[in-house]
């Protein structure tokens, strides 16, 4: 049965193929295919687009023609290049509408001499070497315009002519015909001419001045309708649109064509100048099909004015409608042809598919039997894989639970390390600070204890940061600041240890200020680790260079830390950023966490960290930060910087301890300590009792009772308390009117930024992380008590009726006044630095930097420099001192550095500033 069906189907297909072949024999032989190249001077105006539309309309009757158009965009050189491209592509006929007559003539002659038929359209060339010319008689256009103008003005009047582009044949011929015909009317005078580039803006720019010089003009003859419209706008601007009559050329249909301008009364008339697109294609096809044709094919012209404009508009609209009908019918015909071709193709495909299906049927039947055997075997394998997958999932879940438990233990253990560190570092700091008579051996041993305790604390902090990064609990809270000042302040910390080790420290920013959104608490750890690492491995006499520059191509900022150390070996480079990797050197100088932590924090900040190294010559670490951060990483509130007092090893960095200040209230002030750890509680009482009256509690509830009973001047409270937490204690103290005014200092081992925010939001006045510096705690307490005393004094003055209420001077204003006075008193000292100013104010360098940063938004160095440059402007207004004397008097190390700094701030050099203001 199958064989009989296939035989019948094959016979049917053969018969159909024979019938199709017979039908194909009756079809006309396919027409020869032609390629026509059209070099257009421009296709940027309505008249040229009408020319192209006419060509395409005529080409719709010749589907065998492949038509290509190149736009020279008013460039004769480009037009010559495009015609040469046509000649290389092998066209059958060339149509040229020249941009300029003379430059295009040689390439047209070359195409003609190669045997390629050339049709010149609209604009003639200077040679007679062409096959045919199609276009209007521009001389006749000019003559017709002159005769119409004479009749319109009664053969008496003043005429102005707006010419087309100089050098183009239409402009030359129209002017020649217009001038010749106008000479036959003695009463008509051509008083002025205005050149243009065939576009309306050129008329708007040039015609007003000419019209003002010739107010007697009665009529304007414009070489196209666009120029005529521009002339009308100029006349309207000069309020002469009713006195001056305007004649244009082209007579195009459409809403912006000359016919519509005549009907709207904008211009008086227009001369029909056919684009000639249809005639050019008809002539080209007669040439290609070897039919008879005329070499010269001039297009007639006529005047369109108010008498015949309506008729012309109706005719053009009718022609447009008929053309649309023709195009619609052609599209339908093409769709029908495509449908026929697709149906024929589908039939052939179906026939082949049926034959193939018959052959495949046998193969499918045989494959089906084989697949049944394979399916059974695969089912068994899938069952085994499913069981293994479930087992793997169980192992993965068990591993996840175990890992999470390890990480929790790891985190809790790291937290617990802070309490014994408090009890180690606190007494050691106290002994080193308050024990000047200690023997040298004991001071050395205590220094050794402090260094190793600080090293242990650094490891704990880095481990905590590693844990936060690992679980995604270290958020980025970026604020806008000056990255140059930020890095400079960090480098200031490394000046003393670098100097002690004989290492030169250089800072080379490409710009004096670089505003950027960044998280200071994240980036300071990155740069501290990189600088600390460079300082470890740079030998005496070496150099560390920190450079900074903006990279516009990457929309980023690049900070490089380069050292002249021993470099990184080849085997270490692949592992340098791995956690706890210490390299192949015999003696490790670190824990192997610094660079890994720096990499993790840089990536957290949307940046990258890379390095290059040459063994024996040094290494360069490059931090690349984006100029823009996502909106979710930006914070409108200033983020409190991390206390770095114990964040680095003391053998590399100087201890950052607040300077002691005078006690405010001595033993009269009462301080309440709430701490559940007996040793820490006893340590706090011991350190505070010489300075204040102290009471203690070991839980939150008892602490609240003592606070309500004794009303202390200040409360120190631990956060992690049994039953009632420190945050709840603070909330209750602030909500009770009896204790709401008491300053509260929170102590905790929880140092995360979000935890500090919780403490401040609860109402704490100070949030200190363990281990803390006892001296810093004492001075913080004194400061809080002093501020509270000032507030009480202010309230007493406000409530007193016998004393004039004078608001006390703002603390920030007094601070700035003192800071300015100190700087101005030491302006001549070129060695004046941040430490000197901080020492004069009685505060630490870090406190001074953060205070100035909070009040002024700038660094201390920039503030000193600003005062020096401001003072320099005052001194430069007088001729009593030379520029060099001004520089040295203000503490600049050299006149050249003074000049560079002055010009960077005010964009003029000191000499230019003095010359400008003394002259004024």
From TrEMBL:
Reactions it catalyzes: ATP + protein L-histidine = ADP + protein N-phospho-L-histidine
Domain Histidine kinase, chain residue ranges per copy: 412-629
Domain annotation Response regulatory: ranges: 670-785
Enzyme Commission number(s) of this protein: 2.7.13.3
PROSITE patterns from the UniProt entry: HIS_KIN, HTH_ARAC_FAMILY_1, HTH_ARAC_FAMILY_2, PROKAR_LIPOPROTEIN, RESPONSE_REGULATORY
Record carries keyword Zinc: no
Pfam families: HATPase_c, HisKA, HTH_18, Peripla_BP_4, Response_reg
Top-level taxon of origin: Bacteria
UniProt cross-references to InterPro entries, sorted A to Z: CheY-like_superfamily (IPR011006), HATPase_C_sf (IPR036890), HATPase_dom (IPR003594), His_kinase_dom (IPR005467), HisK_dim/P_dom (IPR003661), HisK_dim/P_sf (IPR036097), Homeodomain-like_sf (IPR009057), HTH_AraC (IPR018060)
Name of the top EC class for this enzyme: transferase
Record key words, sorted: Coiled coil, DNA-binding, Kinase, Membrane, Phosphoprotein, Signal, Transcription, Transcription regulation, Transferase, Transmembrane, Transmembrane helix
Modified residues (4-aspartylphosphate): 718
Transmembrane annotation, as ranges: 346-368
SUPFAM superfamilies: ATPase domain of HSP90 chaperone/DNA topoisomerase II/histidine kinase, CheY-like, Homeodomain-like, Homodimeric domain of signal transducing histidine kinase, Periplasmic binding protein-like I
Residues in coiled coil: 371-398
All residue ranges annotated as the HTH araC/xylS-type domain in the record: 817-916
Gene3D superfamilies: 1.10.287.130, 3.40.50.2300, Histidine kinase-like ATPase, C-terminal domain, Homeodomain-like
Signal peptide bounds: 1-17
GO molecular function list: DNA-binding transcription factor activity; phosphorelay sensor kinase activity; sequence-specific DNA binding
Name the record gives this protein: histidine kinase
Lineage: Bacteria, Pseudomonadati, Bacteroidota, Cytophagia, Cytophagales
């Amino acid at each position: 049965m199958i064989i009989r069906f296939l035989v019948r189907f094959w016979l049917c297909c053969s018969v159909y193929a024979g019938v199709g072949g017979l039908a194909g024999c009756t079809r006309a032989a396919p027409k020869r295919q032609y390629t026509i190249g059209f070099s257009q001077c421009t296709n940027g105006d309505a008249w040229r687009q009408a020319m192209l539309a006419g060509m395409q309309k005529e080409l719709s009757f010749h589907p065998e023609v492949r038509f290509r158009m190149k736009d020279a965009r008013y460039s004769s050189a480009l037009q010559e290049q495009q015609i040469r491209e046509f000649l290389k592509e092998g066209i059958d006929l060339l149509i040229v509408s020249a941009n300029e007559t003379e430059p295009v003539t040689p390439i047209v002659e070359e195409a003609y001499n190669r045997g390629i038929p050339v049709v010149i359209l609209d604009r003639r060339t200077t040679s007679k070497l062409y096959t045919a010319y199609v276009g209007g008689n521009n001389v006749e256009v000019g003559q017709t315009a002159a005769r119409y103008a004479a009749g319109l003005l009664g053969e008496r009047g003043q005429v102005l002519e707006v010419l087309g582009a100089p050098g183009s044949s239409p402009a030359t011929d129209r002017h020649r015909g217009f001038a010749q015909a106008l000479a036959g009317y003695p009463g008509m005078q051509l008083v002025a001419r205005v050149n243009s580039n065939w576009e309306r803006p050129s008329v708007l720019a040039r015609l007003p001045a000419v019209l003002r010089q010739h107010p007697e003009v009665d009529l304007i003859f414009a070489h196209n309708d666009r120029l005529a419209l521009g002339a009308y706008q100029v006349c309207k601007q000069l309020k002469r649109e009713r006195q001056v009559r305007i004649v244009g050329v082209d007579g195009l249909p459409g809403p912006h064509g000359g016919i519509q301008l005549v009907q709207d009364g904008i211009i008086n008339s227009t001369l029909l100048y056919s684009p000639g697109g249809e005639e050019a294609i008809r002539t080209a096809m007669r040439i290609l099909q070897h039919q008879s044709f005329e070499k010269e094919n001039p297009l007639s012209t006529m005047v369109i004015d108010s008498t015949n404009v309506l008729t012309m508009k109706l005719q053009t609209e009718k022609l447009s409608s008929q053309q649309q009908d023709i195009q619609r019918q052609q599209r339908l015909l093409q769709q029908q042809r495509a449908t026929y071709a697709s149906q024929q193709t589908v039939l052939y495909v179906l026939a082949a598919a049926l034959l193939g299906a018959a052959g495949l049927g046998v193969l499918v039947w045989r494959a089906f039997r084989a697949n049944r055997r394979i399916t059974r075997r695969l089912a068994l394998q899938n069952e085994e894989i499913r069981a293994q997958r479930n087992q793997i999932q169980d192992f993965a879940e068990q591993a996840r639970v175990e890992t999470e438990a390890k990480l929790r233990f790891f985190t809790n253990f790291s937290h617990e390390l802070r309490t014994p560190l408090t009890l180690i570092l606190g007494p050691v700091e106290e002994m080193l600070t308050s024990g000047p008579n200690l023997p040298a051996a004991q001071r050395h041993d205590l220094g050794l204890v402090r260094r190793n305790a600080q090293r242990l604390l650094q490891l704990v902090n880095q481990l905590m940061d590693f844990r936060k990064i690992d679980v995604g609990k270290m958020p980025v809270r970026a604020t806008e600041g000056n990255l140059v000042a930020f890095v400079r302040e960090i480098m200031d910390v490394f000046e003393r240890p670098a100097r002690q080790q004989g290492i030169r420290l250089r800072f080379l920013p490409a710009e004096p200020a670089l505003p950027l959104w960044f998280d200071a608490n994240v980036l300071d750890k990155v740069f501290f680790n990189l600088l600390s690492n460079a300082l470890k491995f740079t030998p005496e006499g070496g150099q560390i260079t920190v450079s900074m520059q903006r990279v516009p191509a990457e929309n980023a900022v690049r900070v490089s830390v380069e050292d002249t150390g021993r470099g990184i070996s080849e085997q270490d480079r692949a592992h340098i950023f791995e956690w706890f990797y210490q390299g192949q050197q015999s003696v490790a100088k670190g824990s192997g966490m610094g660079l890994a932590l720096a990499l993790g924090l840089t990536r957290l900040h949307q940046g990258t960290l890379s390095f290059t190294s040459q063994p024996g010559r040094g290494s360069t670490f490059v931090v690349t930060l984006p100029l823009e951060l996502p909106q979710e990483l930006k914070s409108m509130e200033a983020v409190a910087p991390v206390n770095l007092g114990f964040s680095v090893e003391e053998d590399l960095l100087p201890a950052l301890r607040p300077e002691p200040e005078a006690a405010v209230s001595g033993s009269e002030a009462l301080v309440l300590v709430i701490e559940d750890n007996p040793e820490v509680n006893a340590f706090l009482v011991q350190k505070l009792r010489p300075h204040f009256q102290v009471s203690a509690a070991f839980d939150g509830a008892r602490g609240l009772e003592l606070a309500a009973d004794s009303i202390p001047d200040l409360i120190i409270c631990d956060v992690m308390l049994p039953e009632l937490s420190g945050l709840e204690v603070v909330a209750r103290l602030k909500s009770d009117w009896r204790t709401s005014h008491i300053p509260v200092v929170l102590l905790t081992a929880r140092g995360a930024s979000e935890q500090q925010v919780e403490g401040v939001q609860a109402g704490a006045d100070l949030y200190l992380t363990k281990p803390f510096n006892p001296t810093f705690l004492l001075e913080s307490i004194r400061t809080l008590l002093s501020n509270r005393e000032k507030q009480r004094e202010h309230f007493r003055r406000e409530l007193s009726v016998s004393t004039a209420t004078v608001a006390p001077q703002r603390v920030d204003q007094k601070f700035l006044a003192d800071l300015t006075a100190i700087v101005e008193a030491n302006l001549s000292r070129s060695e004046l630095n941040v430490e000197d100013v901080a020492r004069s104010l009685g505060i630490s360098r870090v406190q001074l930097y953060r205070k100035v940063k909070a009040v002024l938004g700038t660094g201390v160095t920039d503030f000193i420099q600003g005062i020096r440059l401001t003072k320099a402007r005052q001194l430069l207004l007088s001729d009593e001192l030379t520029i060099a004397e001004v520089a040295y008097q203000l503490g600049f190390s050299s006149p050249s550095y003074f000049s560079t700094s002055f010009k960077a701030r005010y964009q003029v050099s000191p000499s230019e500033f003095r010359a400008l203001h003394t002259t004024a």
